[in-house]
Design brief:
The chain is of the alpha+beta class. It has 2 domains: about 190 residues, 3-Layer(aba) Sandwich (Aminopeptidase), CATH 3.40.630; about 90 residues, no CATH class. It is built from 9 helices and 12 strands. It has a 7-stranded mixed beta sheet, sandwiched between helices. A 5-stranded mixed beta sheet has the order 9-8-10-12-11. The chain is globular. The N terminus is likely disordered.
Length: about 300
């Protein structure tokens, strides 16, 4: 997820070690340039991390982000092994201090993909697009190794992550995973079930490439409703989820599913309502995805747009 070198993510051209067709030199250079520009805009440099001191800083950063100092999300020994085996550990540096990091490992050889397991930005450095710079570096890093796709999971209730993954990066949800990690009990997840959406980022997809240079294509929930979409899950005046009445999933080709604006704050202020959102989104969005319908976008106001397959 990071670029090699202190200058802001210069990625060397590396020949693919799999039978897959490697990306062209010109395309890789463009991906690297986009990555460099994002890093400059965020005020960071992005590089690969392999030294023990750097990897220890990643462990400390993730422990701080997730509030798990006694049981950090990753260990130093695991990161050391992953980097030795050629996997991805990258970090964003601000004047020598680690302010963001990302860790990924390869899928089975035949799947031609990298799984981006965990990424986080220091609490005092959010809002600067550091995560975006990390992902663009990860894209260039993966393309340089002949990898076509990056996959990862995220909590479908976290609206800002839905926007980031589906709109700003152009990734596509492919699977709903119920309570995927089991109980995590940390500052971000609380005691909530760890439902996740699995997304796949097709690195050569024109829409993804356009998103990487700022040409984003958010969904328009109001327009979809005007065209006949069914709002299957919405929010009431008290901030609670409310199911649609009078229309079923089968009656409209497009469905809208709402999520709360800030589920993490809600878990602290009203855990009962937060739990209700988990259950309702699981039943509505989870059922749609598991039935093979396609999540094709996310509206800034908090709606997933799902198109039903015939």
């Amino acid at each position: 997820m990071t670029a090699q070198g202190e200058s802001g993510a210069a990625v060397p051209v590396v020949r693919a070690v799999s039978p897959h067709t490697p990306i062209g030199v010109d395309d890789l250079e463009q991906a690297s340039q986009v990555c460099d520009a994002a890093a400059r805009q965020a005020g960071v440099t992005v590089r690969s991390l392999t030294d023990l001191a750097d990897l220890a800083a990643v462990v400390e950063l993730f422990a701080d982000v997730w509030g798990r100092s006694a049981n950090p999300p990753v260990s130093l020994e695991m990161l050391r092994a992953l980097t030795k085996a050629g996997n991805y550990v990258g970090g964003a540096m601000d004047r020598g201090r680690l302010v963001g990091a990302c860790v990924g490992f390869f899928h089975a050889p035949s799947e031609d993909a990298l799984h981006s397991h965990i990424a986080g930005v220091a609490p005092g450095s959010t809002g600067r697009n550091i995560g975006f710079a990390l992902k663009l570096h990860q894209r260039a890093w993966a393309l340089g190794r002949g990898v076509e796709e990056v996959a990862w999971t995220f909590d479908p209730l976290v609206s800002r992550n839905a926007w980031f993954n589906l709109v700003k990066l152009g990734a596509h949800p492919t699977e709903y995973l119920t309570n995927f990690y089991g109980p995590m009990v940390d500052d971000l997840n609380g005691t909530d079930d760890t439902d996740r959406l699995l997304v796949r980022w097709r690195l050569r997809d024109p829409a993804a490439a356009a998103a990487c240079v700022g040409d984003v294509r958010p969904a328009d929930a109001a327009r979809e409703v005007a065209l006949g979409a069914a709002v299957l899950l919405d929010v009431d005046s008290g901030g609670r989820p409310v199911r649609a009445r009078g229309r079923t999933r089968a009656e409209a080709p497009v469905a809208l599913v709402r999520v709360p604006p800030d589920i993490e704050a809600l878990r602290g202020s009203d855990p009962v309502t937060a739990r209700l959102w988990r259950e309702e989104v699981r039943e509505v969005l989870g059922e749609l995805v598991q039935a093979g319908h396609r999540v094709e976008g996310f509206d800034r106001s908090g709606y997933y747009v799902v198109r039903r397959n015939p």
